[in-house]
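We were asked to recover a plausible sequence for a given structure. The inputs and outputs are reproduced exactly as logged, with field labels preserved.

PROBLEM: sequence recovery
POSITIONS: 1517
GIVEN STRUCTURE:
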């Protein structure tokens, strides 16, 4: 080798020459047969890369490599000269004047040497050290395909012409990023990168960001500095600006770049102005550089270029390109399989890919509207085809099968892991699943996917040495072959950790999960565990971290979290300067932890996609202008540039810890209604993770866990009780999986809690029944579901308690005794006055204060005992119930008895995660976070009361769940809450950022019951399993009487007994849907206290203090009055609007109600004037649609011709005033009303006889129609609920933007408005409902016996009346019938529901006629099967079928098994059958034999409308 020349140890001369060109060094080519010596060109595939041999000197200068061919003094002088030149500001133009030339065929592009670049660390590596998927990525220039070279040539042409570029194509996005990195790495071009998302700020994220800087000894000097953002840095420094995720940006954000793209000009916030290089150079000829700087003119570098990356919209979700923005780019489509198929593809990979090709070709050949296809197919037939397999899954699958070839023996398992769309959300239909299995079998592979998800087992995990960061993992395949791999190992002290934590119970399912996660670890892929709460995901992650010596960093995700929050947040330093604080995810990457992204289902797909470069490429640019690189990339770039660690740090480039890993968790069911609307899952996100389907535990595994828990005292259930509990649990899960209602789903965590509670209470008869009833919140379930639950308990031989135990309370200095249960009394030092002040008291306050104290009673004493049992077990508590039942009173009494200080928080609509943990304020220019009651309770070991938990956004509940389950929570200011037991084993035990949870900390959550009429959020489904639930109900009669007698001892006991009976009946009326308000103990106490204080007031006037809310509802007011009179209570004056008179002496001062003003003189009836503004009009005789008026059409008045509602509140005229209307006016009003009716009937071609018939049917279901409409309206109002919209320039100050406000930014406000639809969300489709009525001959035959046909007609009318046009955006229904003649009789079509009374009547007449004249026979099963098949073909988010049948099936040889198979024939269709008649006990036997929750009995046909109404309510919710 010639002296002074360098020969890299590479495998080929071509590789040698390429790297030499890249690094700027000189090389000897020993075999010049492949080179052109005249031009020093090296021939590559399809082109040449030019490699001059003159730039080794610059390489030596930058790397300080000795040059023996030159005298030492000369070499040093030349090196220093070059360094001085480079350091004295050689212009960019001059720096590029010498360099390489990149050539592909005839296309050339000048390339600067790395040695001349000021920031060579910003030049990406063209070839990655390793790929995340491990397959199909070029490692060298020899690996580049013709397609890749064609794309590179196209990019070279665009750069030569100075044209901005848009690279589009399907996922995965790293294909396009890698292509850009390859091009920029070959061309030695510095890169600035930004990933767009909906929370991006056009000014601060793209142009400039303000920062407050304090200087001076005391920080007295304050200044505002402007930091250039990516677009400005790229334009000034001549870099390539890479903008990824164009489709994710909100509209009109990217317009800030339009002038920069078009004219290379931009006005900056600091007063400078970027100008076109030609214009700048022209000005420089007449002005000095100093003058130009004073003018604030900045030269846009001629090498500045923009490369945008995005998905094509459509077919992919996103915002379409703005035409002015689009017109500025040259576009290139980059397919997903670029360099994706390896020539060394293994046989297992080929087998799976053959199946995938068949699937995709079938889709292509049968495409609807494809003119080039060989054949066409019906749309209904196309839905039976398998959906196109995403190309994004191919690299993941290739990597898996290459390393673990035995996985190919079960192709179904492999597809499940790389094709999450097939089972997350809607997934594959039954027919599609059958087609897939058939296809796999045809290819000679195993099509079954059993409970175990991998064919391998983990044999051993051994650390290389005691302090090594590597471990060896060995796997074993079914054939005995082994796979061995070296993986990263953490730094945690596992031996100490095992002593501090409870032991894991390893079951086959958990071992299977461990093996899959270890495979992901080997493949450098990110596992994403998907399953319902309580399926063991957290346990699997904790075990994985433990066996590999990792510490976990849990990042709890929530809906309000922005893409920026995932990386960093704004803050202030101690002197008041603004700064950026790293997120938990970034800290984990620096410290080598496992970052657990818990709850990715809360994030939009756009926010997730913004992490792609970080998770897939191992690169992330932080807002403070620093860059984190994956460790191997960091070392490669450091070596390439010749920098030391200190130089890289000075350039703000930092390495990630080599052991850093990420695990994602999605807490959602795999399929079903609650999973079908998942907005986070799309093809782009599917390519980011290796998905792991976490199934629920079976009975065997749960038995093993319950019996093997280390704390046997908690779960020492006797075998018979344990067997009953397990039997019930799995039957209940099967029932709730089919339910159309939202009910509690018993998780393993809840199962253990039930077992622990029964064990702690002594396993007495009835304890298991009570514990299950509580955990399922059975008291608050809809009546149909509650009946099914009772049936399951009976089937499982779990009996009710035979009697109620009488309990007494005794307290000593150290113990509290409630019956046989005892709990320690908390000790507080005498001098701790603050803690003592936080102990609640049950003593009554002054007469004029709301606090009236606590009164002991039997029921609430039992509740106190139950709270004590769970408190002893270390549980956090959830008290849930109606308003006014004493949740706060019971809680305060309990804490008073055990002497525990409390902190109190009340949540509401505007509660945020940040307000939950800290209150941000600004003091002397510093951002100060005041500890919230939550943090104070955690630090001091107090009990935290969180009230109105159902009123806060659901993501607040998700944070509380992590705190309750794991004792962990990440705060918005970067601090973390961690459990005390992990302190001794943590390497960060003295970290000020960690708040160690006190061992005595507990939470008690108070919330209203779920469902209507409460307006809360569905928080229970999110956190219910993490807390010990205690339903708080109104006391029973005996307890209520005892309580009231203590509260009002002077009131006659007989009156108390009667009032208790009245309220008991009103509560039952609420459960039956007759009233809309759940009257509680609070209202009863208020009535009794008024009676005690003012006995001279009449009871009729007194109860108005409670019931006047319903005075405008005549039906409810009448029912209330009837119930009071039924129990012998005189409530005269209750429904009188006037508060004066009624035998009372005249008052000196009276408050006159507008509705009670003396009405005007009675005149002839008339329609009245129509107010175009529809303002409310009370009284008078002018306006139509008014209330409380005279002689005009309206409501609540007197003498009007007919009723007319304007939608405004109703003011009712008293009966006394109505009686004053003259007879002639009444007759005229009747005639006018009759004329209006005849006119309406003529409009719809309906005769009076038909009108009477219609009204008579409607009268029987009028209440059900109203109730159903109220429920459906509730759905609409919930979906229209407004949210806080952030990043506004007006509105209320956003606490999370205080630092931005200090810095002077303007978009720091928030305002209420309707949530902006995320482009990643699939447009919600209406719920699809099909109702199947039995119109067979038996319906007509037995109508005289039980009225079944009449009730069916009433039910059909109820549905048609309630489901009018206003609900079509949310619900689409149709009605069909079945009889002996036909399996489908169209009665109401989905696209043309009846519009008026006549059309609805015609439907009823058709039902009656079919039943009267059809042939005998029963088509219940066939009709149900057809209905399910038909409704499944319609596009909808959820599908429902409700069948009514008279259970006359045995006569036709139809068995319960046949009915059951049909009801469950399609998993995406929820079907339920209601038997409305029976011969003997046939219907009851059918209900018992069919799955619980699928069949209901209504032998009392009067109940049919209310049962169907309740099923519709379940559908709505």
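RECOVERED SEQUENCE:
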């Amino acid at each position: 080798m010639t002296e002074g020349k360098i020969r890299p140890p590479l495998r080929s001369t071509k590789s040698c020459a390429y790297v030499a060109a890249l690094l700027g060094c000189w090389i000897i080519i020993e075999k010049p047969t492949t080179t052109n010596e005249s031009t020093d060109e090296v021939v590559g595939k399809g082109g040449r890369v030019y490699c001059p041999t003159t730039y080794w000197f610059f390489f030596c200068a930058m790397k300080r490599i000795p040059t023996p061919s030159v005298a030492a003094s000369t070499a040093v002088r030349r090196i220093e000269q070059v360094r001085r030149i480079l350091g004295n500001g050689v212009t960019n133009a001059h720096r590029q004047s010498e360099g390489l030339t990149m050539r592909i065929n005839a296309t050339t592009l000048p390339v600067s040497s790395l040695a001349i670049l000021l920031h060579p660390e910003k030049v990406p590596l063209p070839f990655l050290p390793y790929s995340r998927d491990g397959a199909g990525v070029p490692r060298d220039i020899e690996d580049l395909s013709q397609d890749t070279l064609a794309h590179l040539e196209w990019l070279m042409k665009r750069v030569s012409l100075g044209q901005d570029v848009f690279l589009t194509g399907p996922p995965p996005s790293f294909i396009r990023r890698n292509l850009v990195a390859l091009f920029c790495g070959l061309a030695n071009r510095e890169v600035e990168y930004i990933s767009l998302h909906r929370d991006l700020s056009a000014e601060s994220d793209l142009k400039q960001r303000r920062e407050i800087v304090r200087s001076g000894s005391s920080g007295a000097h304050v200044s505002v500095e402007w930091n250039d953002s990516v677009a400005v840095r790229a334009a000034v420094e001549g870099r390539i600006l890479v903008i990824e995720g164009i489709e994710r940006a909100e509209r009109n954000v990217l317009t800030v770049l339009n002038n920069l793209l078009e004219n290379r000009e931009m006005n900056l916030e600091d007063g400078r102005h970027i100008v076109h290089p030609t214009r700048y150079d022209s000005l420089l000829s007449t002005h000095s550089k100093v003058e130009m700087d004073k003018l604030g003119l900045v030269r846009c570098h001629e090498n500045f270029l923009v490369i945008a990356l995005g998905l094509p919209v459509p077919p992919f979700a996103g915002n379409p390109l703005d035409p002015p923005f689009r017109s500025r780019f040259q576009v290139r489509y980059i397919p997903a399989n670029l360099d994706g198929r390896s020539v060394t593809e293994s046989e297992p990979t080929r087998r799976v890919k053959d199946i995938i090709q068949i699937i995709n070709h079938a889709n292509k050949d049968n495409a609807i509207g494809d003119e080039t296809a060989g054949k066409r197919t019906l749309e209904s037939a196309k839905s039976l085809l398998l959906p196109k397999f995403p190309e994004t899954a191919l690299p993941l699958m290739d990597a898996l099968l290459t390393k673990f070839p035995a996985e190919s023996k079960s192709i179904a398992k492999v597809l499940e892991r790389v094709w999450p769309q097939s089972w997350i959300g809607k997934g594959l239909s039954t027919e599609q699943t059958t087609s897939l299995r058939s296809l796999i079998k045809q290819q000679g592979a195993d099509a079954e996917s059993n409970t175990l998800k991998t064919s391998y087992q983990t044999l051993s995990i051994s650390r290389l040495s005691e302090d090594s960061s590597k471990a060896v993992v060995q796997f074993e395949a079914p054939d005995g072959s082994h796979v061995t791999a070296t993986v990263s190992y953490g730094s945690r002290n596992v031996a100490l950790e095992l002593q501090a934590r409870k032991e894991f119970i390893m079951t086959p399912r958990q071992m299977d999960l461990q093996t899959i996660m270890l495979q992901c670890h080997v493949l450098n892929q990110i596992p994403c565990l998907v399953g319902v709460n309580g399926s063991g995901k957290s346990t699997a992650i904790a075990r994985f971290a433990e066996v590999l010596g990792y510490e976990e960093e849990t990042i709890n995700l929530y809906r309000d979290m922005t893409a920026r929050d995932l990386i960093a947040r704004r803050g202030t330093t101690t002197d008041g300067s603004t700064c950026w604080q790293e997120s938990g995810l970034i800290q984990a990457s620096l410290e080598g932890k496992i970052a657990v992204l818990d709850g990715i289902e809360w994030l939009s797909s756009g926010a997730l996609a913004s992490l792609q470069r970080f998770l897939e490429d191992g690169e992330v640019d932080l807002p403070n202008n620093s860059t984190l690189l994956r460790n191997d990339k960091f070392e490669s770039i450091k070596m390439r540039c010749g920098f030391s660690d200190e130089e890289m740090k000075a350039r703000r480039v930092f390495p990630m810890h080599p052991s850093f890993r990420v695990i994602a968790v999605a807490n959602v069911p795999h399929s079903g209604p609650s999973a079908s609307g998942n907005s986070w899952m799309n093809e782009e996100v599917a390519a980011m993770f290796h998905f792991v389907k976490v199934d629920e535990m079976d009975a065997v595994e749960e038995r093993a866990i319950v019996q093997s828990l280390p704390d046997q005292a908690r779960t020492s259930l006797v075998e018979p009780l344990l067997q009953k509990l397990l039997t019930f649990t799995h039957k209940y899960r099967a029932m709730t999986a089919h339910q159309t209602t939202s009910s509690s789903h018993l998780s393993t965590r809840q199962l253990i809690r039930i077992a622990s509670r029964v064990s702690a209470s002594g396993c007495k008869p009835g304890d298991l029944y009570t514990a299950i009833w509580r955990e399922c919140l059975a008291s608050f379930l809809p009546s149909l579901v509650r009946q099914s639950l009772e049936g399951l308990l009976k089937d499982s031989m779990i009996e009710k308690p035979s009697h109620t135990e009488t309990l007494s309370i005794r307290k000593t200095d150290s113990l509290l005794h409630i019956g046989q249960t005892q709990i320690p009394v908390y000790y507080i030092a005498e001098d701790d006055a603050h803690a003592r002040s936080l102990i609640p008291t049950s003593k009554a306050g002054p007469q004029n204060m709301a606090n009236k104290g606590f009164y002991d009673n039997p029921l609430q004493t039992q509740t106190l005992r139950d709270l004590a049992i769970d408190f002893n077990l270390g549980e956090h508590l959830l008290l849930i119930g109606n308003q006014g039942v004493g949740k706060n009173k019971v809680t305060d009494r309990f804490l008073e008895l055990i002497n525990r200080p409390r902190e109190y928080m009340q949540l509401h609509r505007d509660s945020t995660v940040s307000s939950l943990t800290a209150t941000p304020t600004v003091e002397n220019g510093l951002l100060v976070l005041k500890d919230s009651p939550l943090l104070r309770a955690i630090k001091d070991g107090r009990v935290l009361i969180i009230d109105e938990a159902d009123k806060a956004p659901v993501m607040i509940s998700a944070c509380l769940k992590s705190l309750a389950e794991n004792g962990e929570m990440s705060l918005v200011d970067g601090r973390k809450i961690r459990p005390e037991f992990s302190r001794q084993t943590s390497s960060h035990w003295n970290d000020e950022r960690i708040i160690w949870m006190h061992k005595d900390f507990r939470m008690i959550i108070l919330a209203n019951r779920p469902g209507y009429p409460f307006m809360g959020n569905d928080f229970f489904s999110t956190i219910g399993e993490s807390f010990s639930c205690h339903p708080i109900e109104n006391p029973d009669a005996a307890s209520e009487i005892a309580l009231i007698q203590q509260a009002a001892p002077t009131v006659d006991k007989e009156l108390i007994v009667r009032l208790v009976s009245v309220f008991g009946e009103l509560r039952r009326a609420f459960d039956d849907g007759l009233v809309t308000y759940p009257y509680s103990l609070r209202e009863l106490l208020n009535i009794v206290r008024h009676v005690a204080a003012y006995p001279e007031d009449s009871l009729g006037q007194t109860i108005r203090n409670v019931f006047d809310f319903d005075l405008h509802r005549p039906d409810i007011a009448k029912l209330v009055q009837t119930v009071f009179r039924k129990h012998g209570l005189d409530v005269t004056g209750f429904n009188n609007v006037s508060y004066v008179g009624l035998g009372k002496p005249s008052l000196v001062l009276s408050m006159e109600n507008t509705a009670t003003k003396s009405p005007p003189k009675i005149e002839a009836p008339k329609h009245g004037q129509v107010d175009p503004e529809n303002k409310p009009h009370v009284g008078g005789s002018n306006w139509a649609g008014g209330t409380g008026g005279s002689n005009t059409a309206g409501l609540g008045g007197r003498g009007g011709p007919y009723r007319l509602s304007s939608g405004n509140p109703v003011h009712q005229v008293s009966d006394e005033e109505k009686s004053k209307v003259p007879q002639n006016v009444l007759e005229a009003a009747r005639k006018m009303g009759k004329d209006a009716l005849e006119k309406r009937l003529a409009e719809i071609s309906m005769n009076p006889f038909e009108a009477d018939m219609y009204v008579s049917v409607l009268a029987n279901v009028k209440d059900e129609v109203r109730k159903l409409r109220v429920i459906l309206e509730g759905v609409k109002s919930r979906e229209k609920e407004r949210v806080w919209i952030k990043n506004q320039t007006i509105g209320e100050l956003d606490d999370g933007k205080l630092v931005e406000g200090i810095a002077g930014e303007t978009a720091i406000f928030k305002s209420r408005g309707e949530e902006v639809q995320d482009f990643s969300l699939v447009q919600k489709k209406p719920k699809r409902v099909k109702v199947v009525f039995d119109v067979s001959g038996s319906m007509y035959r037995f109508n005289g016996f039980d009225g079944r046909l009449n009730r069916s007609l009433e039910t059909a009318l109820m549905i048609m009346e309630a489901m009018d046009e206003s609900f079509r955006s949310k619900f689409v229904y149709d009605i069909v019938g079945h009889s002996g003649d036909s399996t489908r009789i169209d009665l109401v079509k989905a696209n043309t529901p009846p519009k008026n009374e006549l059309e609805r009547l015609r439907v009823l007449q058709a039902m009656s006629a079919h039943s009267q004249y059809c042939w005998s026979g029963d088509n219940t099963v066939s009709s149900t099967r057809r209905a399910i098949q038909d409704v499944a073909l319609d596009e909808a988010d959820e599908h429902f079928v409700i069948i009514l049948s008279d259970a006359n099936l045995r006569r036709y040889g139809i068995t319960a098994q046949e009915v059951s198979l049909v009801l469950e024939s399609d998993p995406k269709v929820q079907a339920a059958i209601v038997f409305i008649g029976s011969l003997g006990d046939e219907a009851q036997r059918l209900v018992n034999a069919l799955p619980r929750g699928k069949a209901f009995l209504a032998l009392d046909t009067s109940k049919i409308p209310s049962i169907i109404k309740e099923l519709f309510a379940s559908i709505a919710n």
